[in-house]
């Protein structure tokens, strides 16, 4: 459906002062080329100034009448198809600007002709005409706007010429072409071609084919492997022999008497390979290391059928106005700093073509899809596509349609644009006609910056119609007017430059026009504001935007249009109400400013639509630095009480609501509590009671639920405890109060938040450090309590290992620095051992070691026992913990237990035994009894027994501990070994009497078994 509006995109118009009747024209950079009709064989050049003013720059002769012409911005050359003596020629005019300075020197050369050194100094002062011979007559041409390459359409083939920059010397660079590629397409006579960034579009009378040339990896064996595409249908090869049922005579009669039309077809993407149009690539470049090899990718094939009517077929049903439109990356460095267009980064590509009564716009960039269909009110003559509009001429009018290129390109640039942060009107938005401007006899059109060049040719009937009298005029007067229609004073043609109004001016008109629909047609208001937004967005995506005089005005208009759309989706009841949020965000408006736009002062009965509530809810639930005033905050409370009362507790926890009156807020919460009580609501009331200093009310609210229920209640609204400011987690007054009065509840609540992904581990560290006013490198006891409590519930191995390292590090630091915790730990070591599997029972041999020696560590007994308990469990990764434990390894008994525990974890039992025998032999047997089991039992007789014998012999009777340990060891060994094995272990130094009781015990055990 096409929306109809009556806006004014066309401004002033000026007549181009052509000396001869124009046959063809085109624009380039800042000039207009006009080729005269057959008689003169000249091209006039006009400079286009502000407001469409024209200034003649000069003219140059052509070989013959110009049939087609095109200008390339890259390289600034004009290419023509000319006719002479019934033959057609392809010519490119280089350095034509010197003609405007009065120079008449012209150099005509063949393409690829080597420049003679004698001409080097004069080349800058002369126009160069490059002739490009072809084996078949050229039918149509197109220049690539990105790199200046040229594509020529001939019968059954497309020929590509690459633009070359030949450096003659440091002061002179000459342009030339190289015929690089030929695309052979059987049974195809191109009517129009379009070429852009290796994308090729070609049309016949009723077919459209869009291709892309893809670079392929080059290898030695693929030099000749260039043919790509779908193989030719078999019937094309055998000449129709396969279809033998009808006779040749019958087929000929059918062809003579009937018109055979193929069915309409549309094939997109990969399916377009099925179009049965074979394409063969022939590379014509001289092979070098840099030679590029291509393959063909089919993008789109569409076939139309002739229009049918009760009177037969319409022979004028033909495609026209084929065009490829590139859209470049917004604000890229190349477009900002460079003048050369070939440096721009292509973002999206669009293809337009048209039938007499309908036009089609496709996106052929990342995705091939039909974007818009344009229905014309009458038969079209020609159309031209721009990033902002589609301009169409009919037999009597110039029409302006909106396009969706900027919407599609915005999504190519940012695939996640339709979120709560950003939005863009949809590509599927209905197109609309902005204007239908009457003209007499429009014949051709082209577009140039903010100008439209329009050629009109008035037939005799047109001039008669223009002078047609009203009904009140006499018929004889009409006859007298008709007799003057061929007067020489009235030429039958004109070439106009129509100045399109600035984007800002048209944007303002669209916004003003939309206000007429505000209270009548909601969708029309949104549609027109969306059109205005896309108009500005397209202007911002223009490559020259960063250097535009209107840059600041356009950015301001963009933000304003977002605000208007936000207003629409907030005020109106629409299905897309959620778009209020991203549009208001893109507008840059603060919440206070939005409230002023939408909330009437003193209107207690005002209703609020879903879009407004959606915007407020999301804005208040996010961490923002904006603080609403007391009045605005109270108004927000009233709005939510009327529209969504269940959100009130969450809204009151927003940082934006810091200035709200607590008493007013409590009154609203009490009303809501009667209908919908909840733990979050109770906690919010307690929070407000603290703000008011009402401790009685606070205690009453906190006593309403058990502590575990309250801890889980914070999951529903974490901002009761912590709020973010500039990305940093900050504790609230509630958290400060809990730290002093109920630290266990605070820790339990924070653990619940972490386990429900409401707070990260690092954020919790910052939270507790700020809460306890600790320095960056100081760990408060409350944070250690949190780590220990989190160890009880966490099931993620990565988190568990991180926590184990953290608590281990803290225990070691306190023990080594003789530092006591600043507050009493919430749990004792015994509590942790009983409730957490990561804290193990302390081994007897550890207790034995600690019972020997001085008692200087009594004050740090809790940290020591916690550390030993951790190491007595199998949870901690001891290899990771070794660097953390390093400060304690040289200490007294504590260090000994740490080293032995580490060696035991690492399987270094022999080293552990050596350490114990050296430092605390009392514990050696306890250690062996606890650790030397299973596969390690052999260490009793292979390691422990020999070491005890050796050390007992060296010390004699001075160390009764070694003797008692040796006796205990012998008891174990005698029980485990055979008599013969036991005898082999006995020393041969004459001390056998010492071992007799054990030998006897060993032999008796053997007899018993």
How would you sum up this structure, described in words?
The chain has 34 helices and 36 strands. It is of the alpha+beta class and 1009 residues long. Among the domains are: 779-906, no CATH class; 921-1008. It has a five-stranded mixed sheet with strand order 1-31-30-29-28, with no helix packed on it. The termini are far apart. Residues 220-255, 309-313, 332-342 and 469-490 have low confidence and may be disordered.
Chart the SSEs and their pairings.
Layout: E1 3-4, E2 10-15, E3 22-28, E4 31-36, E5 42-48, E6 54-61, E7 66-72, E8 77-84, E9 87-94, E10 106-110, E11 127-131, E12 140-143, E13 150-154, E14 157-169, E15 172-185, E16 192-196, E17 199-203, E18 207-215, H1 234-238, H2 248-257, E19 265-268, E20 279-283, E21 294-303, E22 308-309, E23 312-313, E24 320-328, H3 333-337, E25 346-354, E26 358-364, E27 368-375, E28 380-385, E29 389-394, E30 397-402, H4 405-413, E31 432-438, E32 442-448, E33 451-457, H5 460-466, H6 475-482, E34 493-500, H7 503-514, H8 522-540, H9 551-571, H10 580-587, H11 591-598, H12 610-620, H13 630-643, H14 648-652, H15 662-675, H16 679-692, H17 695-702, H18 707-716, E35 722-725, E36 728-731, H19 733-741, H20 743-755, H21 761-771, H22 781-793, H23 797-817, H24 829-835, H25 844-851, H26 861-872, H27 878-885, H28 893-905, H29 909-919, H30 922-931, H31 939-955, H32 960-976, H33 979-985, H34 992-1008
Helix pairs in contact: 7-8, 7-9, 8-9, 9-10, 9-12, 13-15, 15-16, 16-17, 18-20, 19-20, 20-22, 22-23, 23-26, 23-27, 25-30, 26-28, 28-29, 29-30, 29-31, 31-32, 32-34
Protein name: HPS3 biosis of lysosomal organelles complex 2 subunit 1
Domain BLOC-2 complex member HPS3 C-terminal: 505-1006
Biased composition (Basic and acidic residues): 234-246, 476-487
């Amino acid at each position: 459906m096409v929306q109809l509006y009556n806006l004014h995109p066309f401004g002033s118009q000026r007549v181009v002062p052509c000396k001869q009747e124009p046959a063809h024209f085109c624009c380039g950079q800042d000039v207009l080329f006009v080729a005269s009709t057959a008689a003169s064989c000249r091209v006039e050049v006009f400079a286009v100034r502000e407001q469409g003013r024209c200034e003649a720059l000069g003219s140059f002769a052509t070989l013959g009448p110009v049939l087609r012409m095109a200008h390339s911005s890259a390289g600034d050359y004009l290419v023509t198809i000319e006719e002479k003596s019934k033959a057609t020629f392809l010519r490119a005019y280089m350095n034509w600007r010197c003609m405007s300075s009065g120079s008449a020197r012209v150099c005509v050369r063949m393409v690829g002709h080597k420049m003679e050194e004698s001409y080097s100094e004069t080349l800058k002062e002369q126009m160069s005409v490059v002739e490009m011979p072809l084996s078949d007559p050229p039918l149509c041409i197109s220049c690539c706007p990105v790199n200046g390459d040229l594509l020529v359409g001939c019968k059954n083939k497309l020929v590509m010429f690459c633009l070359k920059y030949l450096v003659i010397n440091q002061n002179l660079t000459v342009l030339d072409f190289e015929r690089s590629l030929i695309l052979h397409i059987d049974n195809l006579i191109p009517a129009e071609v379009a070429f852009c960034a290796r994308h090729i579009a070609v049309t016949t009378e009723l077919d459209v084919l869009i291709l892309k040339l893809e670079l392929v990896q080059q290898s030695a064996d693929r030099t000749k492997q260039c043919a790509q595409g779908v193989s030719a249908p078999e019937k094309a090869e055998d000449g129709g022999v396969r279809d033998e049922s009808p006779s040749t005579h019958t087929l000929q009669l059918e062809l003579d008497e009937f018109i055979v039309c193929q069915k309409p077809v549309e094939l997109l993407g990969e399916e377009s390979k099925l179009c049965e149009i074979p394409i063969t690539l022939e590379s014509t470049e001289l092979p070098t290391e840099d030679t590029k090899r291509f393959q063909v990718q089919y993008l789109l094939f569409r076939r139309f059928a002739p229009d049918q009517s009760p009177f037969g077929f319409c022979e004028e049903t033909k495609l026209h106005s084929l065009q490829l439109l590139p859209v470049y990356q917004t604000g890229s460095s190349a477009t900002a700093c460079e003048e050369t267009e070939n440096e721009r980064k292509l973002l999206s590509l669009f293809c337009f073509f048209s039938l007499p009564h309908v036009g089609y716009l496709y996106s052929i960039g990342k995705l091939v899809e039909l974007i818009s269909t344009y229905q014309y009110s009458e038969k079209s003559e020609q159309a031209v596509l721009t990033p902002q509009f589609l301009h169409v001429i009919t037999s009597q009018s110039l029409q302006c349609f909106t396009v969706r290129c900027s919407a599609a390109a915005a999504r190519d640039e940012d695939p996640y644009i339709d979120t709560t942060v950003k939005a863009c009107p949809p590509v599927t938005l209905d197109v609309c006609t902005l204007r239908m401007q009457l003209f007499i006899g429009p014949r051709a059109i082209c577009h140039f910056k903010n100008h439209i060049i329009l050629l009109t040719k008035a037939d005799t009937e047109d001039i008669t119609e223009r002078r047609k009298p009203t009904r009140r005029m006499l018929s004889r007067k009409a006859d007298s007017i008709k007799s003057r229609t061929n007067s020489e004073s009235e030429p039958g043609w004109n070439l106009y430059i129509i100045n399109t109004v600035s984007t800002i001016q048209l944007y303002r008109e669209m916004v003003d026009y939309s206000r007429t629909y505000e209270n009548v047609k909601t969708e029309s208001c949104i549609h027109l504001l969306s059109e205005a937004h896309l108009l500005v967005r397209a202007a911002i995506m223009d490559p020259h935007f960063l250097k535009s005089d209107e840059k600041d005005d356009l950015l301001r208009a963009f933000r304003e249009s977002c605000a208007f759309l936000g207003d629409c989706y907030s005020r109106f009841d629409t299905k897309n109400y959620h778009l209020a949020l991203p549009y208001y965000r893109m507008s840059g408006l603060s919440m206070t400013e939005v409230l002023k736009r939408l909330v009437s002062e003193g209107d207690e009965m005002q209703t609020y639509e879903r879009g407004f509530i959606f915007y407020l809810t999301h804005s208040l639930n996010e961490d923002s630095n904006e603080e609403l005033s007391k009045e605005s905050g109270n108004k927000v409370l009233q709005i939510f009480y009327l529209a969504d009362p269940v959100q009130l507790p969450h809204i009151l926890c927003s940082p934006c609501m810091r200035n709200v009156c607590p008493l007013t807020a409590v009154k609203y919460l009490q009303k809501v509590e009667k209908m919908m009580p909840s733990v979050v609501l109770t906690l919010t009331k307690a929070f407000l009671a603290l703000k008011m200093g009402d401790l009685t009310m606070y205690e009453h609210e906190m006593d309403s639920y058990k502590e575990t229920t309250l801890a889980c209640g914070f999951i529903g609204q974490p901002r009761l405890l912590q709020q973010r400011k500039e990305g940093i987690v900050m504790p609230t007054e509630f958290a400060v109060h809990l730290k002093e009065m109920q630290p266990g509840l605070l820790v339990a609540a924070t653990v619940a938040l972490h386990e429900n992904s409401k707070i990260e581990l690092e954020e919790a560290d910052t939270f507790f450090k700020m809460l306890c006013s600790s320095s960056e490198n100081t760990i408060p006891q409350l944070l250690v309590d949190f780590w220990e409590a989190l160890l009880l519930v966490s099931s993620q191995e990565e988190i568990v290992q991180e926590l184990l390292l953290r608590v281990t590090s803290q225990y070691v630091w306190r023990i080594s620095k003789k530092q006591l915790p600043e507050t009493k730990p919430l749990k004792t070591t015994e509590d942790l051992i009983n409730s957490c599997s990561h804290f193990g029972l302390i081994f007897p041999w550890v207790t034995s070691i600690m019972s020997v020696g001085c008692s200087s560590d009594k004050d740090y007994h809790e940290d020591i026992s916690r550390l030993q308990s951790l190491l007595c469990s199998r949870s901690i990764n001891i290899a990771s913990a070794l660097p953390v434990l390093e400060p304690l390894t040289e200490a007294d008994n504590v260090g000994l237990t740490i080293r032995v525990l580490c060696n035991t974890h690492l399987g270094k039992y022999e080293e552990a035994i050596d350490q114990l025998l050296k430092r605390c032999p009392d514990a050696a047997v306890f250690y062996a009894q606890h650790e030397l089991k299973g596969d390690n039992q052999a260490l009793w007789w292979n390691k422990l027994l020999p070491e005890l014998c050796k050390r007992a012999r060296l010390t004699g009777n001075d160390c009764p501990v070694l003797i008692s340990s040796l006796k205990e060891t012998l008891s174990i060994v005698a029980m485990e070994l055979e008599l013969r094995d036991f005898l082999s272990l006995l020393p041969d130094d004459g001390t056998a009497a010492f071992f007799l009781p054990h030998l006897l015990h060993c032999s008796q055990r053997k007899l018993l078994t």
